[in-house]
Design goal:
Blueprint (H helix, E strand, L loop, with lengths): L2 E6 L17 H10 L3 E4 L4 H11 L5 E3 L4 E5 L11 E2 L3 E5 L4 H15 L2 E4 L5 H8 L3 H7 L6 E7 L2 H13 L3 E4 L4 E4 L4 H15 L4 E7 L5 H4 L4 E6 L7 H6 L4 E5 H14 L3
Parallel strand pairs: 1-2, 1-11, 2-3, 11-12, 12-13
Antiparallel strand pairs: 3-4, 4-6, 5-6, 7-8, 8-10, 9-10
Helix pairs in contact: 1-10, 3-6, 4-5
């Protein structure tokens, strides 16, 4: 039987879009732990944000931070060396993204050149991030510990200025994605690139007997939803599904909103994989 591996977004998917609670997904999480099914977080969150959640949920598997900026693999998780991996304190790190300092500089230059007004995380205080995201101050502080991805708000600019802004970034090999609350500036990386790399590792580990499932809720998740054998699109808080993701993903499964929808979708998949 094929080994099931689940890749999941966090905000608005496994975590409630407003409260960030995962409690409604507890039954499915318990079953995944019981079956020892790998659960890989694939998120725009920083490593500093992911680590406490992994510990809280007892998830021992690799994770993808900052929209594919880096893959973190616990030491000796795969029974073979990982090419181009950097040795971290307790894990192997595959860095796929552009450094944060370069992204911040590029965002400022693109805004100045085009005449638009942007506000990136680097220019926000912990308190401002907490208010914008509905986070406690300590979590907002962790959200600002960025390495490979700059979330930003495009606050002012004409259509022509915005076009010039995005063209400037594109000409320098940079990309952006629309997340739940912010636009995200990154290098030539995305969640899909990171998930493909992990699928290669899992395929090698399980000798090709692999079945992958990906769950997400926004256009920011399209890249990695398209990689999986099965894609599940979680509804937005108002119950609708993102039209762009729905249109671009063939055969996508639709699920209800937040961790409750996530739970029902995962339980259904597990029930059919006996």
């Amino acid at each position: 039987m094929a080994q099931l591996v689940i890749f999941t977004d966090l905000d608005g998917t496994l975590l409630d879009a407003k409260t960030y609670s995962w409690q409604a997904a507890a039954p499915a999480l318990d079953e995944l732990r019981r079956r020892r099914t790998p659960l890989v977080f694939c998120t725009s969150k920083t490593r500093a944000e992911i680590l406490p959640l992994r510990e809280e949920l007892g998830v021992p598997d690799p994770y993808v931070s900052e929209n594919g900026g880096a893959i973190y693999v616990p030491r000796n998780y795969f029974p073979f060396p990982l090419p181009a991996a950097r040795k971290g304190a307790d894990c192997d790190v595959l860095e796929l993204g552009v450094s944060y300092a370069k992204l911040v500089q590029a965002l400022d230059e693109a805004a100045e050149t085009s005449g638009v007004r942007v506000r990136g995380f680097s220019r926000l205080t912990d308190k401002e991030v907490a208010k914008l995201c509905g986070l406690p101050l300590a979590q907002a502080r962790r959200a600002r510990q960025r390495e490979f991805d700059e979330p930003f708000l495009l606050e002012k600019g004409t259509a022509k200025q915005k076009e010039k802004f995005f063209n400037w970034l594109q000409q320098r090999g940079l990309r952006w994605r629309e997340g739940g609350r912010f636009l995200h500036l990154m290098g030539d990386n995305d969640k899909g690139v990171a998930v493909r790399r992990l699928v290669e590792f899992y395929t090698k580990k399980y000798s090709g007997r692999l079945r992958t499932v990906a769950l997400g809720d926004s256009p920011n998740d399209l890249d990695f939803l398209a990689v999986a054998d099965m894609a599940v699109l979680i509804a937005r808080p108002d119950g609708s599904h993102d039209p762009e993701a729905r249109a671009k993903l063939r055969g996508v499964r639709l699920a209800a909103a937040g961790p409750a929808g996530w739970c029902a979708a995962v339980e259904g998949i597990l029930a059919s994989s006996h």
